[in-house]
Design goal:
Length: 60
């Protein structure tokens, strides 16, 4: 299991890809599911952020 700091860094790296598509969102979601405990506040925060980014991408 990775540290929360490492998971957040990997998440940011994925999300900051200028050519991100649904596959990047899926990879970010898998990262959160696999590396963070369900009760983790970081997991909750990044999941909400991911949902918001997906909604913004759909509106474009």
């Amino acid at each position: 299991m990775l540290t929360e700091a490492t998971v957040e860094e990997m998440f940011r790296s994925l999300i900051n890809d200028p050519n991100r598509g649904e596959d990047v969102f899926d990879k970010a979601e898998d990262l959160l599911d696999e590396e963070l405990r369900p009760e983790s506040p970081l997991r909750h925060r990044l999941t909400v952020e991911l949902e918001e980014l997906r909604e913004m991408a759909e509106k474009k």
